[in-house]
Write a structure and sequence with these properties.
485 residues; mainly alpha; Cytochrome Bc1 Complex, Chain C; Cytochrome Bc1 Complex, Chain D, domain 2; 2 domains; two-stranded antiparallel ribbon; 20 helices; 2 strands; 63% helix; elongated; binds heme C
């Protein structure tokens, strides 16, 4: 090891790299809040790795996208886990980058001399939202399709340029193959490349300018009132150098904490991905206008707000509020030149932050209360993941063409509304696989055994059918009349 290091060091000058990057003095009293940026970076790496594997199996066309994801979940080892991690990772990334932004805002770290790095950070935040918006469509299930239909419609309400925005986002006037190609290219090429480039700049600037000192160190009586005061630069330099006089080094003081929090974040995502996975609804059906779309949870506050305002104001709120927020973030370091950094001594900042967070929290809460857990009417309780998959298959295989469930469907076969009370899931599995074994060659029900459906898929359908009990409560026990050939 030592020999290898020396060999590399002679050629690459590792020692001075280490001194320059790791062995730097950092300001005193840095907190755990300072680890949020690198935790976001760690989650980005997780997204990059899982995303690359997912892209290996994914087919970006409306005809195959859904199937390719079903294939991934069913046939690929750890396919569901990977999708689960990627899905939860995206939420984690949003939470962490938002928390990091709030930390930087609260500590006034966007002020002199870090205005440029703040702008880069705002760009990174916008890119993360772009990832979420484009990634949501890729599974091409009902939720993906309708949420994107609504999202792109909202962009279309922008006064003046609305029509052109929709065409730009959808690659045409309709949401279809061109949209999916476009979203996919953004999700796997444009956005990752831009994010990586901006992260590089962001970090380079952190190394160059050093970590911002705690607000208390700069808010002293010697500080000029405003950061554009010509004496401020000198004051800052002097105070910052003094703040770094302690014994704290980038390695291990900062990196140690960073590593702990980053590892914790990754573990949490993997656990959430393994336990809850990622839902897959029935395939997108552009004709099903009764579907009520739900956006990704962090767009819910805006979505909820839209429900509260009268229709004529919708366009204004839908486009205006996000635009105003982004503009406020971009303009912040330029109109706020007051040198005070502690949040408690910045009343305007404190009030705005409380209002925005409180308002969004309230809207998110009321949106979630309204939505509640999704309870399909035919079962009367939330479905397990197997049953959910079974229900999707029941719809995609068009079983409803011959069978009624709660009054909907065809009349060629028996009504299945309460089939779970008469037949066991085991019987249904065998029956669906090969009805002719039960009823001879004259059965009118097609056989769904392999290769039409895999045994796992038939089992999911059987589990779903088994949950159909005609709306009776748990006090009524099924009485199976299973007869096998
Ligand atoms: C072309 C019409 C048709 C389609 C499509 C169809 N079935 Fe059937 N199904 C029938 C008929 C007819 C019967 C009655 C038994 C027979 O004829 O053998 C039946 C019987 C059943 C039964 C037994 C019900 C009972 O009460 O005994 C189950 C369960 C069932 N079908 C499930 C399914 C599922 C699941 C699908 C989709 C994967 C499906 N069927 C698709 C026509 C159809």
């Amino acid at each position: 090891m030592g020999k290898l290091f020396r060999w590399l060091d002679e050629r690459l000058d590792l020692k001075s790299l280490k001194a320059g990057l790791l062995d730097r003095a950092v300001p005193d009293r840095l907190t755990w809040w300072h680890t949020l940026g690198s935790a976001t970076l760690a989650v980005f790496v997780v997204q990059l790795v899982t995303g690359i594997v997912l892209a290996t199996y994914y087919s970006p066309s409306p005809d195959h996208a859904y199937d390719s994801i079903q294939y991934l979940q069913r046939e690929v080892a750890s396919g569901s886990l990977l999708r689960g991690i990627h899905r939860w990772g995206s939420s984690a990334m949003f939470i962490l980058i938002l928390a990091h932004l709030i930390r930087v805002f609260s500590m006034g770290a966007y002020k002199y001399p870090r205005e440029v790095n703040w702008l880069i950070g705002v760009g990174l935040f916008a890119i993360v939202l772009g990832f979420s918006f484009t990634g949501y469509l890729l599974p091409w299930d009902q939720k993906a399709y309708w949420a994107t239909a609504v999202g792109t419609n909202i962009a279309g309400t922008t006064p003046g340029v609305g029509g052109r925005m929709v065409a730009l986002l959808r690659g045409g006037s309709e949401l279809g193959a061109a949209t999916l190609t476009r979203f996919y290219a953004f999700h796997v090429l444009w956005l990752p490349v831009s994010l990586a480039a901006l992260v590089g700049l962001h970090l380079a600037l952190v190394v160059r300018q050093g970590i911002a000192p705690m607000p208390g160190l700069l808010d002293n009586f010697k500080a000029p009132q405003r950061t554009d005061d010509e004496r401020y630069a000198g004051f800052y330099q002097e105070t910052y150098t003094a703040a770094k006089s302690g014994q704290h080094r980038f390695w291990p003081d900062v990196m140690g904490k960073d590593a702990i929090v980053a590892a914790g974040a990754v573990v949490v995502i993997v656990i959430l991905g393994a336990v809850f996975g990622a839902a897959l609804e029935p395939p997108a059906d552009p004709t099903d206008t009764s579907y009520i779309p739900k956006p990704e949870w962090y767009f819910l506050p805006l979505y909820q707000l839209l429900k509260l305002v009268p229709g004529s104001m919708e366009a204004l709120v839908a486009v205006g509020i996000p635009t105003a927020l982004i503009l406020a973030l971009v303009g912040l370091p330029f109109f706020d030149r007051n040198s005070t950094r502690s949040l408690v001594r910045r009343p305007m900042a404190l009030v705005s932050l409380t209002l925005i967070l409180g308002g969004s929290g309230f809207l998110l809460g009321s949106a979630m209360r309204e939505a509640g857990p999704e309870v399909p009417p035919e079962v009367g309780r939330p479905l397990t993941s197997k049953e959910r998959a079974g229900r999707a298959l029941f719809q995609s295989q068009q079983c409803g063409g011959c069978h009624k469930v709660r009054g909907e469907g065809g009349d060629n076969g028996p009504d299945l509304t309460a089939v779970g009370l008469r037949k066991s899931s085991g019987w249904m599995h065998s029956f669906i696989e090969s009805p002719s074994r039960f009823h001879g060659a004259d059965t009118r029900m097609p056989a769904y055994g392999p290769p039409a459906l895999s045994h796992q898929e038939i089992e999911e359908i059987a589990q779903y059918l088994s949950s159909l009990r005609g709306g009776v409560g748990p006090e009524i026990q099924p009485e199976f009349h299973d007869t096998f050939p």
